[in-house]
Design brief:
Number of strands: 39
Radius of gyration: 26 Å
Shape: elongated
Largest sheet: 20 strands, parallel
Mean pLDDT: 83
Structural class: mainly beta
Distance between the termini: 22 Å
Strand content: over 45%
C-alpha cells in the first residue's frame, strides 16, 4: 500500500463515492465508470482492481466496478462524483464498489470498518445507490450519515434525510434523521434506536456535518457531557476528551513478585546521589508529595528498579539544557506516579532538552505519570521497549515522542497527548501502538512521521482526537 497525505474536504470526499453513480449526459448518454474518482487520501490507502491486482495511487484515480479500497490505521480515503455526492472511509476499513451502468445502479459494500456518506442532491428517479454490509442494506438518495460493519453488528446512523434499511431476507425499516438502525449478528430483525452525539464517530464529526435538531445543544447525548470544552473556530462548542484540571487517574500499583529492598528518599539531592553512586538493582524507591529538584537523573545498568511517586510527586530541573531523567541499559524499570518537567526561572527563556529518554533499555514502564514541557520532547530514546499506561505527555515544544534511531517498541494504553508543538507528534522509526488514548489540541500538522517506513509501524485502536491541527 502507498502512503499519501490528504487534505480535509467533506464535500470532496462525499463526491468521491457518489461519482460512481452514472448521470445521463447530453444526447441521453450515461457517464462512464471513469467519472468515479479517489480524490483524496490520508495515511496508508490501498486500491485493488477487479482481478485483485494492486493499483498505483495517482491524483484523481478512476475507480471501476469490482475495485476495492482499503485504509490502514490513522488513514482515510475520499471518493468523488460531481461535488454533490460524497463518501469517506474511516481508518481500518475496506469497501468494494459494484455498479451496473445499464441499470444505473451503484452499490458500495462495506466489508469492514465504517463509511460516511453525504448526498447533497437527491438522485434522479432512474438512479439507485445502496450502501451495504454483509447483513444490512441501505438505499441512499438525499441523505447524510454513516454505515458500519462492526465486530458484532451492522449499524447505520442517520444525520439528515430518511433511509430505508433492509436485510437480504426482506425485513425492512424506515430510519429518520437522529436515529440509528442496528442489526446484531445472528438476528434477523433490524432495531431502530435514538441516535446520541456519543454514537457519532470522530471521523464523521471531522467532516462537520449538520447534526439533527437539538443534538448539539440540549438534545440526545448532551446529558453528562464532559466539561472540558473549547470554542470552535466558527464559534460553536467542540467536545474535549481530556480535562487539564482533572488529569488522568492514578492507576493501582501492581506488584510483579520480585523481591526488592525499599528506600524512602526525602529530596532531590538524595535521589541524585543514589543514582550516581549506588547499585539500585532490585530496589524500590519511594518518594513523597512535593517537588524534588533533581537537576538531571541518570540510571545506568540497573535491573528491577522501581521509582514510586504518589501522583503528587514532582521531579524537576531548573535549567533548560538538561533532561529530567534518562536510563541506559536498564531492564524492568518502573516509573510510577511521577510528574516530570522543567521549572525554569524567568531569566531562562527556552528549553533545549527533552524530559525523559531511554537508551538500550528493556521493559520500561511509565504508569500514572505526567510528562510536560517546556521540554522539546516528552519521551525520546532508541533501541528500547517502553509501555506507558494512563500517562500524559503535554505542552512539549516539539514532539510528544521522538525515537532517535535503532529499534523501538512503544505501547501507549489510555494515555493522553495534549497541547504539544509543531513537529510531528510521533516521530522516528519505532513500532507505535496506541490503545484507547486521547490526542487533543496539538499544533502539529502531522500525527506521525517515519524516517524509514520499512523500519516503523503504526497501530491504533479506540483513540479519540479533538482540536488537532491536522484534523
Amino acid at each position: 500500500m502507498r502512503k499519501a497525505k490528504g487534505v480535509k474536504g467533506c464535500l470532496a470526499f462525499a463526491a468521491v463515492i457518489l461519482t460512481a453513480i452514472f448521470f445521463a449526459g447530453c444526447g441521453g448518454e450515461k457517464k462512464t465508470a471513469s467519472t468515479m474518482h479517489l480524490v483524496q487520501t490520508e495515511g496508508t490507502v490501498g486500491v485493488q482492481d477487479e482481478k485483485k491486482k494492486t493499483v498505483s495511487l495517482v491524483d484523481n484515480l478512476g475507480l471501476y466496478s469490482g475495485y476495492q479500497v482499503g485504509t490502514e490505521a490513522v488513514s482515510y480515503a475520499w471518493i468523488d462524483l460531481d461535488q454533490a455526492k460524497l463518501v469517506k472511509m474511516d481508518q481500518n476499513s475496506e469497501i468494494e464498489i459494484q455498479k451496473d451502468e445499464k441499470e444505473r445502479e451503484l452499490e458500495v459494500l462495506v466489508q469492514s470498518g465504517s463509511l460516511f456518506f453525504h448526498v447533497t442532491e437527491p438522485l434522479s428517479e432512474d438512479e439507485s445507490m445502496d450502501i451495504r454490509t454483509s447483513t444490512m442494506i441501505a438505499g441512499i438518495r438525499g441523505t447524510c450519515g454513516w454505515m458500519e460493519r462492526g465486530a458484532d453488528a451492522s449499524r447505520l446512523g442517520l444525520l439528515e434525510g430518511t433511509v430505508e434499511c433492509r436485510t437480504p431476507d426482506g425485513d425492512s425499516v424506515i430510519v429518520e434523521a437522529g436515529q440509528m438502525a442496528v442489526l446484531p449478528d445472528g438476528e434477523s430483525t433490524i432495531q431502530v434506536v435514538p441516535l446520541s452525539r456519543e454514537d457519532i464517530p470522530d471521523f464523521v464529526l471531522a467532516e462537520e456535518p449538520k447534526l439533527p435538531d437539538g443534538m448539539d445543544d440540549g438534545g440526545p447525548g448532551t446529558e453528562g457531557a464532559e466539561e472540558g470544552t473549547a470554542e470552535h473556530a466558527e464559534g460553536g462548542a467542540e467536545e474535549r476528551y481530556y480535562d487539564p484540571e482533572a488529569g488522568l487517574p492514578l492507576p493501582e500499583l501492581l506488584q510483579d513478585g520480585i523481591e526488592r529492598r525499599i528506600l524512602e528518599v526525602q529530596d532531590g539531592a538524595e535521589l541524585k546521589e543514589l543514582a550516581m553512586n549506588d547499585d539500585l538493582s532490585n530496589t524500590e524507591i519511594h518518594l513523597g508529595d512535593g517537588t524534588y529538584e533533581v537537576q538531571y537523573l541518570n540510571f545506568h545498568g540497573f535491573e528491577n528498579l522501581s521509582i514510586i511517586g504518589t501522583g503528587e510527586t514532582r521531579l524537576v530541573v531548573t535549567v533548560g539544557d538538561e533532561l529530567i531523567l534518562s536510563a541506559d541499559n536498564c531492564k524492568n524499570l518502573l516509573l510510577y506516579g511521577l510528574i516530570m518537567g522543567h521549572e525554569l526561572p524567568p531569566e531562562i527563556s527556552e528549553c533545549t532538552a527533552g524530559v525523559v529518554r531511554f537508551h538500550s533499555c528493556e521493559d520500561v514502564k511509565l504508569v500514572g505519570c505526567d510528562i510536560y514541557g517546556c521540554g522539546q520532547v516528552g519521551l525520546s530514546g532508541w533501541d528500547s521497549s517502553v509501555t506507558a499506561q494512563e500517562t500524559v505527555i503535554r505542552e512539549c515544544s516539539d514532539q510528544a515522542v521522538y525515537w532517535m534511531g535503532g529499534t523501538g517498541d512503544l505501547r501507549f494504553t489510555e494515555c493522553a497527548f495534549v497541547g504539544n508543538g509543531e513537529q510531528p507528534l510521533f516521530m522516528g522509526n519505532a513500532a507505535f501502538t496506541l490503545e484507547n488514548c486521547i490526542i487533543q489540541d496539538n499544533e502539529s500538522s502531522q500525527k506521525y512521521m517515519f524516517y524509514d517506513e520499512s523500519a516503523g509501524s503504526w497501530n491504533e485502536s479506540g483513540t479519540k482526537e479533538a482540536g488537532n491541527a491536522w484534523q
